[in-house]
Amino acid sequence: MNDTIWSYRDAEWSEDRDLVGYEVEADGGTIGKVDAASTDASAQWLVVDTGFWIFGKKRVIPAGVVVGMDHEAKRIVVSMSKDQVKAAPDYDESDWADEDTRTRQRERHGDYYTPYTRG
């Protein structure tokens, strides 16, 4: 598994920051707002509430897919299109709560998102 997908390109993006509430932008527009964020080393991701456009589903967005962050505007930019985010695996909080299932989910999500990492 590609561990760099689970780390921000710029470590300062998440240092001492609460990213909850930031808008997340993909190619094609806003995909939602950050509902939760992990800042653990090599295990950084955003949980994005996509709202109505994919029926209230949430998506885990690995930090390695993030290509920009504007703290003043509370905006995060990812290297994906809205359709690519829509096609991503669903986020189920219970699957991420247990260490064993979280490891499987990280592998599953990592396999999906790896082609969208840059750098």
UniProtKB/TrEMBL annotation:
Signal peptide: none annotated. Residues 99-111 have a biased composition (Basic and acidic residues). It comes from the Bacteria. InterPro entries: Bac_photo_RC_H_C (IPR014747), PRC_barrel-like_sf (IPR011033). Residues 83-119 are annotated as: Disordered. This is PRC-barrel domain containing protein.
